[in-house]
């Protein structure tokens, strides 16, 4: 059955692979599953046809026969459940990998996104400069905890898993800041993720979309 | 095998059931699974023994034989996977329920928590009153999308599922505000969740902990 995902026709990150379709592309590349991409202009996100697929009007969505999914975490988990290689084979190991998937999206990503969203939406406000250190302190707290857990390990919990796809893509949001500097093992962890051939194929695919996009 | 979860010895919400152990208690009550609770004072959250269970120093954790989990979403999903009644039986329905679990925690909860955290941490700051409408606009956007999806339905996607446990507990964070007033079907949805006998047993159990807690 053909898999079709949605992505931005013209990604606001100019091809840096920060949009959430990157996670899905990476997971599909890891398991060797081909996929089609339906590109959407921003105005299409609020159209009834898209809201029927994604009630919150975002990308990515995932369609495969009768199944339609949204939420990048759920889509990556679905791919990991249907194919070997992205979750441990033992039940306890799988449950732990799922815990790390939720940790990436529910414990680490929100503090990072809060700073990112403030950068877009509140940079012109009088309080922005004063609030920035507060937001960055929260990020450092989480990064410190994550760094302490990771230690010298290659991946979050044993072998590479779907949780690493989510955590690496979450941490990459900080690449353009200096926040990762004091957590060297996290920088090396991101680099390990990006060095995987599946990551590189996924990155190149989304970059090709940006390069082909109508000038914005 | 005995299930042991962790919870606050003295919950900061004074027994209103807002701490994340409530989600786990509710799920376990829905499937009729008994459990033990290990109560932790706040200072224990940063001790090595607890950080080994929960790398981010939070509650709840979940222990069952050799398995140790953290992240309330992952714990609820683990319970739902191991027992009948909290996920549809067909594979596509299960994948959709998981999508709604991630939506509750990754799309709806962060905007609600940002406002809640600002209330705790920034209420004394000069910008608090100016930022409040910005934060509330983001919440209304998400609530409006959720309300449009729910319509007249009882639950998020067909029968009651683990996703409703997460979404109801997320939305309950707004009960003490007026933000839900303009989304009447969401208020009714929360009320349906709270009317379930399993919810009530879980609520009473966490309230009993608060009432028995040493005066703080």
Automatic annotation (TrEMBL), chains A, B:
This is Glutathione S-transferase family protein. Transmembrane segments: none annotated. PANTHER family: GLUTATHIONE S-TRANSFERASE GSTA, GLUTATHIONE S-TRANSFERASE-RELATED. It holds the Pfam family GST_N. It comes from Shinella curvata. It comes from the Bacteria. Residues 8-87 form the GST N-terminal domain.
């Amino acid at each position: 059955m053909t898999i079709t995902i949605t992505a931005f026709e013209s990604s606001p990150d100019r091809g840096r692979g920060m949009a959430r379709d990157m996670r899905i592309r990476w997971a599909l590349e890891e398991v060797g599953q081909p996929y089609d991409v339906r590109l959407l202009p921003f105005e299409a996100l609020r159209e009834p046809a898209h809201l029927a697929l994604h009630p919150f009007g975002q990308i990515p969505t995932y369609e495969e026969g009768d199944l339609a999914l949204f939420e990048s975490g759920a889509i990556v988990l679905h791919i990991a459940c249907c194919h070997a290689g992205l979750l441990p084979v033992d039940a306890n190991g799988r449950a732990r990998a799922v815990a790390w998937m939720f940790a990436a999206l529910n414990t680490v990503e929100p503090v990072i996104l809060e700073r990112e969203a403030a950068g877009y939406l509140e940079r012109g406000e009088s309080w922005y400069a004063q609030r920035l250190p507060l937001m960055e302190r929260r990020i450092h707290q989480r990064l410190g905890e994550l760094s302490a857990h990771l230690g010298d390990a290659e991946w979050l919990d044993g072998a590479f898993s779907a949780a690493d796809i989510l955590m690496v893509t979450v941490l990459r949001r900080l690449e353009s800041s200096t926040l990762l500097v004091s957590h060297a093992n996290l920088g090396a962890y991101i680099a390990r993720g990006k060095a995987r051939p599946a990551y590189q194929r996924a990155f190149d695919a989304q970059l090709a979309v940006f390069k082909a996009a109508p000038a914005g």
